[in-house]
Amino acid sequence: MKLANRYIRLREQYPHIAEQQPHLVHLDELAAVLGCTHRNVVLLLKKMQSEAWLDWLPKRGRGQKSALTFYKPAEDLILSIAQDLVERKDLRGALEQLNVSSPEGSLKDSFHRWLAGYFGYSSEMLGSKRFDTLRFPLTQSLLSLDPAMTNFRTEAHLVHQLFDPLVRYNRLTQTIEPHIAHAWEVNEARTVWTFHLRKGIQFHHGRELTADDVTYTFERLKRLATGALYGWVHRHIDSVEAADPITVRIRLSEPCELLPQYAGTNRASIVPAELCEELGDRFALAPVGTGPFKLTHLDASMCVLDAFPAYFQGRAHLDRVELWHIPDMQVQGSERTLESFQIIHNYRLPDEASETWQQVQQPGATCRFLTFNLLKQGPLSDPALRGAVCAALNRRKLLERIGGDAIYTADSFIGHGHGSTGQEAEPLAHETDRIRALLKRAAYDGQRLTLCTITHYEPDALHVQALLQEAGFSVEIKLLSVEEFKSEQRLHADLLLFSIMLDNDAELRLIDLYKSMQRHLEPAVKAKVAALTEEALRESSSSRRSALLQAIEAHLTAKQVLHFLYFKRLKTIYHESVKGISLDALDWVQFKNIWFKP
């Protein structure tokens, strides 16, 4: 590696000299370029000559020039070094090599084209066994794999592979199914839930899971509940106790019919008490669960999951899953993408590939929406002006600017499933002059409005800003981190842009959203939303809960404090050789069930 880097430095010193063209040079000059003595220069040149990278014909006599002929282009060697580092699982080193040695884009493009071919499915024989690996590229870094601390979809998906909750929700049957708990019951008052655990479930570090781990998990979640997803559930929980090593009893202060759903979320995945306590914050990047895969390596460039042979639901077919962090890799632009990846998320399938590739698209989706901060004194306290904002955000125009075939208009959280049939909600369509007339009637005279969102949603915020400015509004964007957005900082803005994931946990997520929104609603609207929300939590019928959630949505839209933008659905395409495709709660491929037909 050091010799190659010295050759690259030497070759780049003479960019005007073509390969196989002799060049006369003093030994002093070469010593200055390589930063070493004459003797070491001679040794280095001989080593480079033995690698067939160059030819060096020294001439005797002080002051004589020697003939130096380059054979190996620096770009070829840089690419070779980067590829070798990738083979040794050092992606970070490979990218650093490219950045230091070759700031030009063409070589990086060549590297990424080669790297695309490195991804996908690979199989090798190790002795008498076949070792199957699946590699994915990730454009987003992993900040936490602690179930209680995840904020992003990719992290949540990996938690689903590493951990298990008490129960699981079956989207097809819309029922709660056994998982770590094989059975449960609730008392007549619906305030005491008792879960019976399977025996023999192993954590990745070898210890058997017990009821104490379950009680620790829920107590820990309660400590971390402030500002956390579904943290409000813990206000209903009086205590969690281990009745014996395989029995857990959860006592509620009042009925909460979504408790079983909460117990089946990734957030409520069971963690090992002693290890989680020992590692503290470090548990986020060194997680240990009971899932079908265990984490064996994690750094800034790679996450490696190996199959957990003792998994209580059966061993995974794959032996290893590698997720490589490549922030600037444009996989869809690669000519080799379909040949290199057996499974791809969010990829538009070409017509010519439809015979050998299949596509799945599930009802779950992410909905972008806009809300109004009614606590802040300003022009948007006028419902008429809020109506003008909604009118200016023409959803059809927004979708045209965003682009993509997995995006469709939204006009309801509850009724989002219409997009799966190709039917789109009819967007509000107002001409610009009509909107300006609305602004005039609302006595808007150009006051600056602040639009707040998280950094990940900046592209959406820019589109919203553009539409509003075209209609005559003055808008500035305020970007916050996820943690900052959860705090009071967002309440200094006029408009809030965010999203909700309508997956298996849709009811929990909607309750979470409506409880969060109460922080910036005017008193009358806040009271109405709070009353309907609490009624939904006490309702045991899923259909009646749905009606109550729809009533909250209708009230917020009627009061012009909630405006829908669009839905984005995750699509997955896979080659016909891939078997066992199933999709988990987040519409990602469940790694455990995947196998490949040669």
From TrEMBL:
<dbReference type="InterPro" id="IPR039424">
    <property type="entry name" value="SBP_5"/>
</dbReference>
<dbReference type="InterPro" id="IPR025370">
    <property type="entry name" value="SgrR_HTH_N"/>
</dbReference>
<dbReference type="GO" id="GO:0015833">
    <property type="term" value="P:peptide transport"/>
</dbReference>
<dbReference type="Pfam" id="PF00496">
    <property type="entry name" value="SBP_bac_5"/>
</dbReference>
<keyword id="KW-0238">DNA-binding</keyword>
<dbReference type="GO" id="GO:1904680">
    <property type="term" value="F:peptide transmembrane transporter activity"/>
</dbReference>
<feature type="domain" description="Transcriptional regulator SgrR N-terminal HTH">
    <location>
        <begin position="2"/>
        <end position="99"/>
    </location>
</feature>
<feature type="domain" description="Solute-binding protein family 5">
    <location>
        <begin position="175"/>
        <end position="503"/>
    </location>
</feature>
<dbReference type="Pfam" id="PF12793">
    <property type="entry name" value="SgrR_N"/>
</dbReference>
<dbReference type="GO" id="GO:0003677">
    <property type="term" value="F:DNA binding"/>
</dbReference>
<dbReference type="InterPro" id="IPR000914">
    <property type="entry name" value="SBP_5_dom"/>
</dbReference>
<protein>
    <submittedName>
        <fullName>DNA-binding transcriptional regulator SgrR of sgrS sRNA, contains a MarR-type HTH domain and a solute-binding domain</fullName>
    </submittedName>
</protein>
